[in-house]
C-alpha cells in the first residue's frame, strides 16, 4: 500500500515498459490473450500524461486506410480495466494507466487537475476505513470504490502564484 501512495501518471519511459511487462506477465498467468489491439491500446494510454477517451485512442491507432473502430477500443479497454491495467476516470469518461497492482477491493483516489488535466492516483487507508464505515451504515454494497477529486495540482497552484507576483511587479519577464 505504501508503494501505492503518490505515484502520478507522469509516466517515465521505464514505468511504461514496466506496465507492458506486467500486462504480459498477468495475461500469461491468467491464460488470457494479450492481443495486438489490447497491447497497442495500453501503449497509447501509457504514452500520454492526460486521461484519454476511447475515440482519441481509436484515432491514434488508426492509419490512413485502416480505421480502428471505437467499439473495438472499448472492448480492449474493458479487458484492460477488468485486469487492473488501466482505470476509467468516470467524470472524464477517459482512461489512465495503472502502475501498481491493487489489493482486492482496494479503494483508489484520483486527484484530477482542472488546469493542466493531470491525474494523480493515490490511496489512503484512512479514507478506506471511513468509506467502509459509511457503506456499512448505509447498508450499501459498492460496485467500485473509486473517489475522484477535482481541483488544482501543486504545480498549477505554484504557476498561479508566480503569475500573480509577476503582474504586481514590473512586467515582461517570461522565465517559466
Ligand atoms: Zn491503480
Ligand atoms: Zn495542474
Describe this structure in words.
One of its GO terms (cellular component) is cytosol. Pfam families: FUR (PF01475). Fe cation binds at residues 102, 128. Zn(2+) binds at residues 113, 116, 153, 156. One of its GO terms (molecular function) is DNA-binding transcription factor activity. The model is unreliable at 1-11 (pLDDT under 50). By secondary structure, this protein is α+β, with helices and mostly antiparallel strands. A hairpin with a 5-residue loop joins strand 4 (108-113) and strand 5. It has a single domain (7-168), classed as Winged helix-like DNA-binding domain superfamily/Winged helix DNA-binding domain (Arc Repressor Mutant, subunit A). The chain has a 4-stranded mixed beta sheet, with no helix packed on it. Helix 2 packs across helix 3 (54-61) and helix 3 crosses helix 4. It is built from 6 helices and 6 strands, in the order βααααββββαβα. The site of one zinc ion has 6 residues, from loops.
Structural topology:
Blueprint (H helix, E strand, L loop, with lengths): L6 E2 L4 H18 L5 H11 L7 H8 L8 H13 L3 E4 L4 E4 L10 E6 L5 E4 L2 H14 L7 E6 L2 H15 L8
The structure holds zinc ion (2 copies).
What tags apply to this protein structure?
DNA-binding transcription factor activity; four-stranded mixed beta sheet; 6 strands; iron; WH-like_DNA-bd_sf; alpha+beta; 6 helices; 176 residues; transcription regulation; binds zinc ion; two-stranded antiparallel ribbon; Arc Repressor Mutant, subunit A; Fur_C
